[in-house]
Every structure is written in C-alpha cells, then in structure tokens.
Specification:
Elements (H helix, E strand, L loop, with lengths): L5 E4 L16 H14 L3 E4 L16 H14 L4 E4 L9 H10 L3 E5 L3 E3 L13 E3 L3 H14 L2 E6 L2 H13 L10 E6 L9 H6 L9 E6 L6 H10 L2 E4 L16 H14 L7 H8 L4
Parallel strand pairs: 1-2, 1-10, 2-3, 3-4, 4-7, 7-8, 8-9, 9-10
Antiparallel strand pairs: 5-6
Length: 290
Amino acid sequence: MDKAILTCALTGVLTNPKQHPVPVTPAQMAAEARDAFNAGASIMHVHIRMQEDGFGHMPSWDPDVAENVVDAIREACPGVIINLTTGVVGKDISGPLNCIRRVKPEIAACNAGSLNYLKIKEDGSWAWPPMVFDNPVAKVQQFLDVMGECGTHPEFECFDVGIVRSVTMYLKNGMLKPDMGCAEYNLVMGVASGMPCDANLLALLPQWMAPDSIWQATLIGRAEIWPVHQKTAELGGMLRTGLEDTFYLPNGNRASGNGVLIAELAACAEKAGRGVASPAEARQMLGLRG
C-alpha cells in the first residue's frame, strides 16, 4: 500500500484551554506543531483562536491572527503543509475566505454537506440548543472558487454517508477543477449526530467514493477510536489525530500533547505495513501545486 499521510489537528474550535492542554498563541501552536512534525505529521490542520483576552476559548477569523499563527508553524516546521479550517455557520463566509486569501494554505477544509449538530445529555436534555451546520451546494461552491484562486486543495469533510455520496456527485459535476489536486474525502466519525466511529461502517464507505480518490478518517472520541485508526491504516486510508479530536492515548491515559498522539498514529501505519509519508511525498500523493 501507499505510505500513510499523517495529519495533526492541533487545537479545536471551542475546547477550553483552562481545562485542556490545547495551544492558542502562535508560539504555542508552533511548539505543538513541531512536536507533531517530528513524530511524523506532514500536515497541520489549523484552527485560529481569539488572542486579545489571553484566554483563547473562542474562534477567530482575523487574517492577521491567522497569518501570525501560520507563519510561526511554517518557521518551526520547514516544509510542513498547512490545512486551514473553514467551518462557519450561516451565509457570511467572509471570515474564512479572507483567511484563505491571506495565508494561501496548500489545503483547506471544505465542509461538504449540512448536518443537524446535536448532542444529548444522560437525562435526555440537549447539551446545547439544536443547530444546523449548514453547508448547501452554493456555499461549497463559494469556498471552492476562492480555493481555486489561491492554489488551495480542498479536503472534503464528510460527516455522514449521504455527504460522502454528495462529494462523488460534486466531482462528477466538475466542481473540483483539475488543477486543485486529487479528490480527497475526510470521513468524520464520532460527532454525536453524524457517523459513529465504527470500523464496520468505515470498511463500507470507500465503495461510495470516486475512483482514484484519497481518503482519511477523522475519529472523535476516547480510547475507543484507536482500533478504528488501525482499521483505517489497514484499508489504505490516511490518518489524522490531535488534540482537536481526542485527549486520550490507546491505553486510556490522557495525552500530554499532540506529539505523542501522532507517534501512536505512526505506530498504526507501521503495524499495517505502511511507511509514513514525508511532506514532499504527501504533496505528490495529493497533487498539491506547491
């Protein structure tokens, strides 16, 4: 099988830095990225946090902050590939588009379909007010248009089986231009109202993807995600983890940072008989312009 591309999701959207060891400042993001890079991650998936309150609990779409964070990561990890988040609720997507235009990441997330974003408590009440993570086709096209302008490769985020099938229709429709790299699906498993983190389901999904595409799995949860990471490696998928997705190692212990999580992901690839792709190899596999 091809080598495995490892992606590190350095920090999440709303994870509280006072409760969990997520990086926020450019220096913190760079240090965590360096640890992950040294452990084998070629790609850093980057969320930007508000800096001005020194707390970093809320997301930011300030292009200046995005540039400072991305520049720090690039300096700390020569040759690294930046994958910028874009997820935003509502019609106004000017924030993520401005960030793409400013930092020109080689990859950006492209959320490929809508989802009722729900979570339920043990007593049956909602963990937060039910909301829709809205990603209609017109919104997807807006993102693809700007990614095309900036030389950015879209990574299609798929939260449910129907979204996987929708991406295949986008490709048939010609929404992914030939110079934007190969088709790439990211199977997001573990969101409470999306696909469960299940190895049996994972094995079924490649049949609904376009020929010659690349896929990876984003697995959200605790120690139970690691057998599914192993299955991903065995099926030929690309691998992603980081403090955005989990705080737990395979043995159930809490992770001290991103580097140890990526080291475990590299071990999954090794157990499956696969090497770990360098940044240059990852660029070639994904057809990146850089």
